[in-house]
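Q: Can I borrow your eye for a moment on a structure tokenisation matter? Would you mind producing a protein record, from residues through to fold? Write it directly below this note and I will take it from there.
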Amino acid sequence: MGSGQFLTIYFLSLLGGNLFALFIHRNHGDYSAIGASGAICGLIFASVAIFPGISIGLIFIPAQIPGWLFALSFVAISIYGIKSNAGNIGHDAHLGGALTGILVAIAMNPEIIFYNYIPILCLLAPTVTFLYFILAMPEILLINSSFTSGKTHMTKDEEYNLRKFNKQKDIDRILDKINEKGIDSLTTKEKELLDEF
């Protein structure tokens, strides 16, 4: 493909992945991320769009899998990761970079649409559908999937503030009890908590 196309796909995928991540986290003031994984995903997906028959090997796994199968699995994992907010991974940047990589590859080599339309459609269909739902109904990002068992991802600041709030609530309850029934009405655990506070 040459260094010019390579660098174009790389930097546009980096930009596309970052913009998609910023869009997803536009209401999260404490969000931060670093890295170029969206650009790498763009290069991989552009390669799969141009050469769908390539094989991709993963570190520590001796077998290789078809590029289109890897890419389709990657899209599914990324969508699940965005929905469940799983781990400390930029799934949104990965998906945005991958989509940008495919689109840039098509723009640079439009003939691949005719030769590789099935793998390209298989990759674009779930990604574009997911993007449509995010734009049309952004609240779907707030709903936990059945796989996350009702747990929501909280930042360290949110966890700290929740612990602080719960502790203050316990102290307020103890102080109300002292006000109503006196200090002798406290249990041993309540006295320890009051001493600790």
